[in-house]
Model the fold of this input.
Amino acid sequence: MKKITYIVILFTFLFLPINHVFAYRRATSSEYKEYLREFLESKYYVNSNDDNEGVCNVNTVHSECSEVKVSSTGKSYDLDTYIAGVLSAEPGATINGNDELGKAWAIIIRSFTIAHTNDCKNPITASSNEQNFNSSDMETYKKYAEETSGIVMTKNGKIIEAVYSLARASDCISVDNNKCKFKRCTEYAVSPNNCPGESTEFIVPAGVVTYPNSDIHYGGIEPYIARYLANEENYKYDQLLKAFYGEDITLSNLSSSNDSSIETSCNNTVSKTGKEAIDKMTEIALQQADEVHSGGSKYLSWFGYNYRVEWCAIFVSWLFKQIEGVDKYIKISAIAGEIPRASVAAGLGTWYEDECTDPSTVPQPGDVIVFDPHYNGTYTPYPKHSEDKYYSSHVGYVYKVDDTYVYTVEGNSGDRVRAKQYSRKTHCQTIGLQGINGYFRPNY
Done:
């Protein structure tokens, strides 16, 4: 029996391609057209005339909250109407017509309300101890609630109690050029120097924060700092949320299904333009894989090289250029790890760790997938390369994801463009081969 086992193992390693043994494989030439045909017929493809189909890009989280009871008034309001009333009473004038700021606040208030009231089972008071509420000017702010309807912030599959508070002018830590540094906590805290969770720092011009009251806390978004970031630094609503509540938050859609687990859902916050960009890149990428581009000369010459270099990052850069996505969705580079590194630094998107490191990560079509060689010779855990978290030896484009695999198109794979697939949960733990390091997701 042992002889038979040894023979089977020996046959596996001698006669099966090594990529089958280590949980990934590349498509045969006949499969490229099939991939393209399936894509054009699939739910991932967005017809330009259809706004209702899209790329699955966020999670869903269970909630039965449909209306909120305000104990101090004795009345109940549907959730979005209640949010409009809180918007009027709380951040109100600080929004001042900035739509990104208004949407950020609507998501914050929705998240706090559901978490604080135990999914709206408990009433809430209209006071500064919970949330102020003004029913007389709701129409002005209702559009922000409607535009973000059903979107909440989650961490590890749970809606966060997204607190918010003012900062004191006296908390200014002076820095050069007449600017102030303010420390904030991502959760409720009575001191910015004693955060129960993560802390963040913001540097803004002196005079942005003028509030004198000492009876405040230091958690979550700060209205006047947020207004400065939205108006002067052009922060989008998702950037504002991550800035104050941490990079690990997820924007999730509410679902009233009986299944309370997190699962992939189509994201109505991805713009129609973003969906079309992803679809166009997927179509172009699969066409490139179907053609023969050995040696990468087409992409190398586009980037300005008249000699051969490793060209996986150049291919990804070229792909985004085809949809005019350079400096809009990514920063281009000939170095694999520099694409996510520079793109995150420029505020063009978000970094997600591999699923072995962070089980809440869900790769999505349109992501840039990044690989780390993991030459550490152990099985688990797999420490990342010490240079930084974006370090990469290879990079590609994600065009499809299912429960088991992430599907990619990669340049410089065997010195040509190839469509490949990887096990989502095991390929980040691969000895001696390139493991998945993480994903960069542009702000589509």
